[in-house]
Amino acid sequence: MSLGEPLVELQAAPAGLDVVIRRVALLDPEDEPVAHPGELVLAIGVRGRAALPALRAGGRGGAAAVAVKLDAPGQAAALTEAAVEAGVALLSVRGEARWEQVDALARAALEDVPLDREGVGLEEGEGDLFSLAQTTAVLTGGIVSIEDTANRVLAYSRSTDSDEVDELRRLSILGWQGPEAYLSRLRRWGVFQRLRASDEVISIDSHPELGIRRRLAVAVRSGDRQLGTIWVQEGATPLTERSEQALTGAARVAALHLVRRRREPSADVTLTATLSAGLLEGSTGPQPLATHVGVDPGRPAAVLGFSYDAAGATGPELARAEVTNLISVHTAARHRSALVTPLDQRIYVLLPQLPRSIDLGTLRSWGEEIVEAAHRHLGLPLRGSIGRIVPGLADVPASRREADRILDAMVRAGVATTVAALPDIQAEVLVSEILGLLAERPGMRDPRLTAVVDHDDRHRGQLAASILAYLNAFGDVRAAAAELHVHPNTLRYRIRRAEELTGLDLTRADQRLLAMLQLRLPPSEA
């Protein structure tokens, strides 16, 4: 859940922190205490030990968590013991918080959070405001809240250290909007006037005498209209070097959410994702998307592709959502019209309406920023590819195909470069595609080379690796032997043995060329 300090505090999690919350339920003290699987039960109207029946009902019904209010600190121990015994997570809610506030924020946080493989999950290309706030907090190193123009809190990032949260943030979340005394100071300092007049990031100095730490703020705008504000409070450490850039991107992504909330949210987001995916795949033309998002289909465009291995990540769906949000924030900061679309196991950035002067070097630097941020903030090894810059949206499928060719080659060939355009690894891409043909068409392979690989499999030999090292070294036996960590005579014996077993003749150029290609296939494909 996105709810945390200062609104709620986790007291017990007997089933761990990966339990999925599917819905929010209110339990009135006059109701029979019941719960259902996956529910976050809000035990309203009871405090302290009076919430014990709700906890036990939550355990019996398979609820994910039960939230209660405490009368005194000492009550936490008894309730925690009961929660552990019942096997249900226990959340304690601050006494000043209103239950309707907790209910509304919890439901908002669950609107688009990825649930499981069977759930609707995160809208393609967009996260909810809570996950956007969390991504912005990661990129800035601060504590984030998103508010509407009436200074009501719409979403905020989690904070595990209560010492980092200043009094303004605490009061804002508990009261669901900024405290009037501080809002008045912001008006006197001209902060709101600057936010209404500009989309630039504004810095607000710390005021220790007021218990207020340094902040950055940026308006969330749609054209000339302000829809809200994103605030970033500095915590125990300074904000990151690129905080302002991240905040600019976050404001543009937040604007899409807030505009769509005022229309038909799910239908609009789904239509944008469908049109974008259709254009990338070549199944729909450019005009529907251009009309829907308001871009010129005749201006230059390009596609960036990203892939990552989430096998080691905690929850592949969550990792996908975090990466998508991070890419969305970074690309929105660089290009207002960017559209982020996850397809299959990759994430694509469609960049319509590019300046005619843009070049691959600029796009490469954008991709490198994203890859570096994913490594630094999420610990994920991201690969990025730059599709060709095409004259207009009609040619976007060609740019996407080129981005895919590059990513395929980076994976197959183990290219060390993390972000590349086709000119960077042209040879690797072409060799990779030739290897793909060999893998798909066994009839194109030399059966003598296949026999070498089979012999190695049966006898745990190194003949195939020795031939390949020998050819890669242009026949330099000493260099190839050093690469394999064997004596040169051992390598000479292996080459002769392979030729005797199969009839290969490595003095012939065509056989050397085919051997260099075929022996690069993975053993499972060779």
From TrEMBL:
<dbReference type="InterPro" id="IPR051448">
    <property type="entry name" value="CdaR-like_regulators"/>
</dbReference>
<protein>
    <submittedName>
        <fullName>Helix-turn-helix domain-containing protein</fullName>
    </submittedName>
</protein>
<dbReference type="InterPro" id="IPR041522">
    <property type="entry name" value="CdaR_GGDEF"/>
</dbReference>
<dbReference type="Pfam" id="PF13556">
    <property type="entry name" value="HTH_30"/>
</dbReference>
<feature type="domain" description="CdaR GGDEF-like">
    <location>
        <begin position="290"/>
        <end position="408"/>
    </location>
</feature>
<dbReference type="InterPro" id="IPR025736">
    <property type="entry name" value="PucR_C-HTH_dom"/>
</dbReference>
<comment type="similarity">
    <text>Belongs to the CdaR family.</text>
</comment>
<dbReference type="InterPro" id="IPR042070">
    <property type="entry name" value="PucR_C-HTH_sf"/>
</dbReference>
<dbReference type="Pfam" id="PF17853">
    <property type="entry name" value="GGDEF_2"/>
</dbReference>
<feature type="domain" description="PucR C-terminal helix-turn-helix">
    <location>
        <begin position="464"/>
        <end position="521"/>
    </location>
</feature>
